[in-house]
Structure formats: structure tokens, C-alpha cells
Design goal:
The structure is a single chain. This protein is mainly alpha-helical. It contains 8 helices and 4 strands. A hairpin with a 3-residue loop joins strand 2 and strand 3. Helix 1 runs parallel beside helix 7 and helix 7 runs antiparallel to helix 8. It is globular. The two termini are about 25 Å apart. The mean pLDDT is about 95.
Length: about 260
């Protein structure tokens, strides 16, 4: 990739990221517009996540990885809505928007792209001090899945209670996270690992030029999403979720910035 092409893609990425932030701000503070903007926010975030990787990797590799993440993640949610596996029994609300194959909202597969791509980028920052360690690839895979699960931890209260995008059905497990069984988080972790097992081989090429240059684009999108969920949860009075989101935001930011300084 030539320097001019990289600059164009880099400019496109940050323009899309700014558009995500602007649209999210309008949605949060203009409730009458929010239902019309929710899908646009997710679509812009997914495209921004893809363009961030296209700056470093072949477009066909990134496109394949995005397709796999969307396909497996969307299929898992469709299966869970029908059978309760792997996340637990849930039903999608009318506010979730049109459904693909009458099973899952069209935005859910895109949400998986946002979660997987940016979680991986954040973990790469965190693990920079250990990037030459023998088992770096395994640590990258495992921590990316864990951070994707943390993304879901922040998402669930906002999506289920603030936005009413889906509703969790009762299970025999008494302890829940705003209605979701702990098995839901474990299911998200398992699906993330499956997705990563398929896509990681396509995302291993280093960025041309100085390989030590940290890329903060995924961190901006990941933290932006958590802050967005936190503000929405606060507006709905979900204070335990806000506290958890705050801890996630600070912890991930500190470890990412520390890793980037190596």
C-alpha cells in the first residue's frame, strides 16, 4: 500500500469515527431521533472498524474476516432466539428493527464486527510489551475474546433495558446481569473464540512501515462504545451498569496507554 493510499484510508477512517461520535451524541440527547439513528450508528461504527484494518491489511482479508464475524455472531443470536443456546432464551423487541431471515435484527451481525475488530485492536495495544513472546498469538486470541465479552457486559443493560432491543426470558439461574444469565456472557466468550479461530489467520500481517507504531483507532471506537452504553444506561437509571462501564473504561484505557508506550 502506498503512502498516499494509506493517508486516504486513514482520513476516511477518522471521518467515519467522527461521524459515529456525532450521530451517537445526537441520538443520546435527542430521544425523538434516537430510533432513527440507532442502525446508522452501528453501521458507521462497523465501517469505521473495517477501514481501520484496511489501512494495514489486504481488503479481501478484512472483508472475509468481517463476513465471518457477522455470519457466526448473527447466526449465534438467531439460534439463541430459537433454542436458548448459546446465550440463553431471548426475544427481540420491535425497536430492534427489521430482521434478517425473520430471525435477528440486521444490526446485530454488524455489532459483532465492531466488538471483535476493536477488541483485537485494543488487546494489541495492551500486549505490545510482550509482542515478541512465544505464545503472543494465544494471548492475543484469549484476551480478545475476553475483551469482547466485556463489550457485551456493557452492552446488555443498555440494549435490553434502555433501548428494549431484546428481552431475556427467565431461567433457573437466579443470579443475572440485568436479566441476562451469566451463561450469556460465557456464550459470548465462546462465540468470540470461534470467530477468532477462523479470522485470526487473516489478520496477522503487520502494517507497512514502522511495526512499532501503536494504532489507537480501535481504542477510540471501543472506549467510545462503552461510554455510549454508560450514558444510555445512566439515562435509564441503571447505575450498577454505569459503575461497571466506568471501571471498564478506566481499566482498559490505562492498560492500553501503558502498553502503547513500549
Amino acid at each position: 500500500m502506498g503512502l498516499s493510499t494509506f493517508k486516504i484510508l486513514n482520513g476516511l477512517h477518522w471521518t467515519l469515527t467522527a461521524a459515529v461520535g456525532l450521530t451517537a451524541g445526537v441520538a443520546l440527547f435527542s430521544p425523538q431521533l434516537a430510533p432513527k439513528l440507532d442502525g446508522l450508528i452501528i453501521a458507521l461504527a462497523a465501517i469505521a472498524s473495517i477501514t481501520a484494518l484496511v489501512r494495514q491489511l489486504p481488503v479481501e482479508s478484512v472483508a472475509f474476516a468481517a463476513f465471518v464475524a457477522a455470519l457466526i455472531g448473527g447466526a449465534a443470536h438467531g439460534l439463541s432466539a430459537q433454542t436458548g443456546i448459546p446465550f440463553g432464551p431471548l426475544a427481540f423487541g420491535e425497536t430492534a428493527g427489521p430482521k434478517l431471515f425473520n430471525l435477528v435484527p440486521w444490526t446485530l451481525p454488524l455489532l459483532w464486527v465492531v466488538a471483535i475488530f476493536n477488541s483485537r485492536g485494543v488487546v494489541r495495544l495492551i500486549l505490545r510489551p510482550w509482542r515478541k513472546v512465544k505464545n503472543y498469538g494465544l494471548w492475543l486470541l484469549g484476551l480478545t475474546a475476553a475483551l469482547s465479552m466485556a463489550f457485551d457486559l456493557a452492552l446488555e443493560p443498555f440494549a435490553a433495558h434502555a433501548k428494549h432491543l431484546w428481552f431475556w426470558q427467565p431461567t433457573k439461574i437466579a443470579v443475572t446481569w440485568h436479566g441476562m444469565s451469566p451463561l450469556g456472557l460465557l456464550g459470548w466468550l465462546a462465540v468470540s473464540l470461534i470467530i477468532l479461530a477462523f479470522v485470526m489467520p487473516y489478520l496477522i500481517k503487520k502494517q507497512p512501515g514502522n511495526p512499532s507504531t501503536p494504532d489507537f483507532a480501535p481504542l477510540v471506537l471501543w472506549l467510545g462504545a462503552i461510554v455510549f452504553f454508560a450514558i444510555g444506561s445512566a439515562q435509564a437509571g441503571l447505575w450498577s451498569a454505569v459503575v461497571a462501564d466506568g471501571i471498564l473504561t478506566v481499566g482498559v484505557a490505562v492498560f492500553s496507554i501503558r502498553g502503547a508506550q513500549w
